[in-house]
Amino acid sequence: MKTRVVIIGGVAAGPKITAKLLRIKEFDCTIDLYTEENMISYSACGLPYFVEGLIEDPERLIVRRPEQFEEQGANIHLNKRCIKIMPDEHKILVQDVKNGETQEVEYDKLAITTGARPILPPIMNFHLKNIFTVRKLQDGIDIRNKMREPETKKAVIVGGGYIGIEMLEALYLNNIETHLIEMNEHILPIFDPEISDLIKDEILKMSKGKVEITTGDGVIAFEGSERVQRVITAKGQIIDTDMVIVAVGVTPNTEIAKAAGIELGVSNAIRVNNRMQTNIKDIYAAGDCIENFHLVSKNYAWIPLGSSANKEGRCAAINIAGQYDAFPGVLGSAVTRYDGLTISLTGLNETEAKKFGFDTISSTMTKKDKAGYMPQAENITIKLIADKRSKKILGAQAIGSGDADKRINTVASAIMADQTVDEFLHLDMTYAPPFSTAVDPLLSAALVINNRIYAS
Ligand SMILES: Cc1cc2nc3c(=O)[nH]c(=O)nc-3n(C[C@H](O)[C@H](O)[C@H](O)COP(=O)(O)OP(=O)(O)OC[C@H]3O[C@@H](n4cnc5c(N)ncnc54)[C@H](O)[C@@H]3O)c2cc1C
Predict the structure, then answer these.
(1) CATH number of the domain residue 352 falls in
(2) Is 82 among the residues known to form the active site?
(3) To test the ligand 1 pocket, which listed residue (20, 97, 288) has its Cβ within 8 A of the most ligand atoms?
(4) What CATH number is attached to the domain comprising 94?
(5) Structural domain of residue 296, as residue ranges?
(6) Considering 29, 45, 82, 315, which one is annotated as catalytic?
(7) What is the pLDDT of residues 167-179, one digit of tens each?
């Protein structure tokens, strides 16, 4: 008899599970994916570049269409929200979002990939028109439509995390005067403060007066008649605006999982083992709705990223099919950009590393990313962090106009290989003048740390 696999959620992790299961030919199953949306398998990560106008047609963000999956034998149920999981009966309850009708669906194996949703902070008058969050394809379409109206001249972004910065880039490149407000003392607070401040300075320098950034102040109210016209901050700023994007973070969609007795961990995300199994038999979870095991801190953390969602989805599918795969965990490696400035990090930042009890030592240096005499040479700033006692590399942050992310990926490999700084500095990296310097800036940073460790 065929195994009945049911998947809840259809953006990244759900479609990944579907696609992988379809490739495991020896696993005889039916696949039914339920999503509350009217489409599946799109790149939320591409939304800022769609808003920017780099990608004109929203269809380009769709990775796979329902018909493509259906042709291969999976059943895709659009506009169907799962409202209850009944583990004892191996059933879920699904509601049609259009007509409210409900239906019970039986499963042998269930995968929860319900993802996350934007946090809506308690700001007065959130209901006013032209206030947006960014998560779904339609959000991107709505934001771009508003941005492109001739009367739209000014915008406010609430929140200076990755998404806030990516939306800032999109608006700035469309000549919208934009004011970003971040409640923390620093934008991109997952970087160490001095790197965050450097990023802020670079953004302001590049934006030539078109962009303003306020840190250490929070938005408390929106004002306007029907549509938003002003933003009021806790410190008394009154900012005129034509539109607002709220990007203050996300929260996992785990209410139905919790109600079914599925164990949650940090930030209310679902706890799974390294095979993506929850505490309840035959129920798996993957993507933004699960917490992650952090490979450096050896603690659980919630780091919702599309890169991890895909790997976790693949792992879940293999285990659902009765084969074996284990997902070791994450480093939180991430990259973004602002108008040509690459901003990237992996592992722990120094502040976090200290909190986890590491005896940190770090080196920050700014060097040319290619031979200085090459016309394309650009500055790159790298911060490398290690533990004095074990000499293990803990993390790195890099910003620069060139290939900052390739250095971060190199550090990610070193951390995964559990390398010490002295092992790392012998890494045989490529060199030719158009690509790097004879001693790559990353290895220079490692050399400085190594010298300091031995000097102390
Ligand atoms: C603007 C933006 C930029 C990003 N950029 C990057 C990037 O550059 N790199 C990166 O790694 N990550 C990035 N991300 C994060 C990335 O998009 C997410 O990590 C990824 O989408 C997670 O996929 P998921 O399938 O786990 O969850 P989601 O994408 O949240 O999808 C979950 C789906 O499940 C549906 N659902 C929820 N509950 C139910 C229910 N009860 N019944 C039926 N359906 C339900 C939801 O409506 C949604 O369709 C970005 C995100 C955004 C918003």
Answers:
(1) 3.30.390.30
(2) no
(3) 288
(4) 3.50.50.60
(5) 3-47+58-116+251-320
(6) 45
(7) 999 999 999 999 9
